[in-house]
Design a protein that fits this description.
Largest sheet: 4 strands, parallel
CATH superfamily: Rhodanese-like domain
GO molecular function: transferase activity
Protein name: Sulfurtransferase
Number of helices: 8
Strand content: 5-15%
Keywords: Transferase
Number of strands: 4
Strand order of the largest sheet: 2-1-3-4
CATH class: Alpha Beta
Structural class: alpha/beta
Order of helices and strands: HHHEHEHEHEHH
Pfam families: Rhodanese
Shape: globular
Radius of gyration: 15 Å
Number of domains: 1
Distance between the termini: 46 Å
Organism: Ornatilinea apprima
CATH architecture: 3-Layer(aba) Sandwich
């Protein structure tokens, strides 16, 4: 609990104003050493699986499984946390930060932010970059 108290105390106006807790999809997908953490429910995942093979490694762990599976989340990579509305990604962000994860960020919480990066021109560029 002490770590959570310290974490909450660090979340000042400067922290939120600087946006250090967020990452844009374009920036996340451009990173060489990053993970897209999908924390949506099984039902959401079964309805729409997010696969970004040409961009980034996708790790799907529903929010209710995070306490048992957080060790699967790399500490040495930037982790962009995604859910469809923003609430769960914010909760997981706080949870991971309380466990000492430093390189976690909240990804935009809407499908448009993802699909806008998959237009043919952007996808072509991503494939070209991955082949270098």
């Amino acid at each position: 609990m002490n770590n959570l108290n310290e974490l909450l105390r660090s979340m000042t106006f400067d922290f939120f104003g600087s946006g250090k807790h967020k990452i844009e999809m374009e920036a996340l997908l451009a990173m060489q050493d990053a993970v897209f953490l999908d924390v949506r429910s099984r039902q959401e995942y079964e309805s729409l699986q997010i696969r970004l093979e040409h961009h980034i490694r996708v790790l799907w762990i529903p929010i209710d499984e995070i306490p048992d599976r957080y060790a699967e989340i790399p500490r040495d990579q930037t982790v962009g946390i995604f859910c469809s509305a923003g609430t769960r990604s914010t909760i997981v962000y706080l949870y991971l930060r309380s466990l000492g994860y430093e390189n976690v960020r909240i990804a935009p919480s809407n499908y448009d932010a993802i699909t806008s990066q998959l237009m043919p021109g952007k996808l072509y560029k991503a494939i070209q970059q991955s082949q270098k």
